[in-house]
Write a structure and sequence with these properties.
Length: 400
């Protein structure tokens, strides 16, 4: 029996009492992935990305491990909820226009001490001030650096369109604005190099494209390391007491950790290892988060139909944004239908061995987005479910 066949048998035994659809996390794989992130971070703390996990119990589990420190959140509402739940080091990675949330933050000393918000424009400070509703707490802020690689005098841009702050001078000027403004304290800098951390460099069947991606990423790492160091020097000249410089992502942990200017690493998707991470040469993880769909039809030879399955990931539409049939090996989508909202036909020789009620196991294209589809995660150890924990959705929250 192959290792994947053994995993399938183990997952089927562990969940035999559960009706699909359902989702699991293999805790042995989850913990091994966590250990690998810490190893690659080489002594720098890893801030876990909440949007890549979306389950409080698993956030607590990973933060209890040596090498992890703090959460990177994705909305202000999530940040406040996590702070009220007892988490005390939360970096909101995206600017917010949540006026009610800012009023709550500015009125509560516990929340204000636990949450750091992201800005890249003086207008963000104006919005926060206009939302205070009498709250006088000092708001902790972080500046986001644009990490994109600009070539040919800026005519070619590689990287996500995030912050407008690209140069050391731009960040230093905004740092001065924060320093002059009552009610705010600048505590950090964040720079997410998504074109390095979030783009696989070993695309199956595309050797020339893969080579081009590796060359681009090498150039981007060199340029960003130099510019990020200059940015940190410029901002520290304004705010010497800067608490942290956050960088990285699952796909670039070891490269970003090697920069002296960076004090902590952000990562989260590497805990679940969704299918998008199959195309990386920088690390190998173990798929930890899976979902099972039940076989409900047998339309003919070499075909089964499972219930549900249309769970595409965010990003530019393409086949790489679709979940992938994982176990049993050898199943594929019908190219005329793909994964459907209510049912999904699957083709391949293994279909003839599947009976009505059997389970097909899938991997999502991205990490935490899986949890938007399921209220609970069943935690598997060996061949047993040892706990069932709610996702954000299971606790009644859909923050975006």
């Amino acid at each position: 029996m192959t290792a994947l066949a053994a995993d399938r048998a183990r997952y089927d035994r562990a969940t035999a009492h559960l009706d699909a659809p359902h989702a699991i996390v293999d805790l042995e794989a989850f913990d091994a992935n966590a250990a690998d992130l810490v190893r690659r971070a080489a002594g720098k703390p890893v801030r876990v990305a909440g949007k890549s996990v979306r389950c409080r119990a698993l956030l607590e589990r990973v933060l209890a491990r040596d090498g992890f420190q703090g959460i990177m959140s994705f909305t202000l509402a999530e940040s406040l909820w996590l702070a009220r739940s007892g988490f005390d080091d939360i970096l909101l990675a995206y600017p917010s226009a949540d006026r009610a949330g800012f009023a709550e933050l500015a009125a509560d000393p516990k929340l204000a001490s636990a949450v750091t918000v992201m800005i890249d424009d003086v207008a963000h400070l104006d919005l926060i001030d206009a939302s205070r509703a009498g709250g006088r707490e000092v708001v902790r802020v972080c500046l986001e650096l644009d990490t994109s690689l600009k070539l040919l005098g800026g005519r070619v841009r590689v990287g996500a369109r995030r912050s407008p702050l690209h140069s050391p001078a731009q960040l230093a000027e905004l740092a001065r604005s924060v320093a002059r403004r009552p009610g705010f304290r600048l505590v950090g800098i964040m720079a997410y190099e998504g074109h390095v951390a979030g783009v696989g460099d070993a695309v199956a069947g595309r050797p020339l494209r893969s080579r081009a991606i590796r060359l681009m990423q090498a150039a981007a790492r060199r340029e960003l390391a130099e510019r990020r160091a200059a940015v940190v020097r410029a901002v520290r000249s304004v705010v010497p007491g800067l608490e942290f410089v956050n960088g990285g992502g699952t796909g670039s942990v070891q490269h970003t950790a090697a920069e002296d200017a960076v004090t902590e690493i952000a990562a989260g998707s590497g805990l679940y290892v969704p299918r998008l991470f199959d195309n990386y040469t920088s690390f190998r993880g173990r798929p930890a988060a899976l979902f099972a769909l039940p076989v409900v039809r047998r339309p003919g030879v070499g075909v089964v139909t499972v219930l549900g399955g249309g769970y595409p990931a965010s990003g530019a539409p393409g086949r790489d944004r679709l979940p992938v049939p994982y176990l049993p090996q050898g199943l594929a989508y019908d190219p005329q239908e793909g994964p459907g909202e209510v049912q999904t036909p699957l083709l391949g020789p293994p279909a003839d061995d599947l009976l009505i009620g059997d389970k097909v196991w899938f991997r999502h294209a991205k990490a935490g987005e899986l949890c938007e589809r399921f209220d609970a995660l069943h935690l598997v150890e060996g061949d047993a479910v040892t706990a069932t924990v709610p996702t954000y959705r299971g606790e009644g929250h859909a923050f975006l």
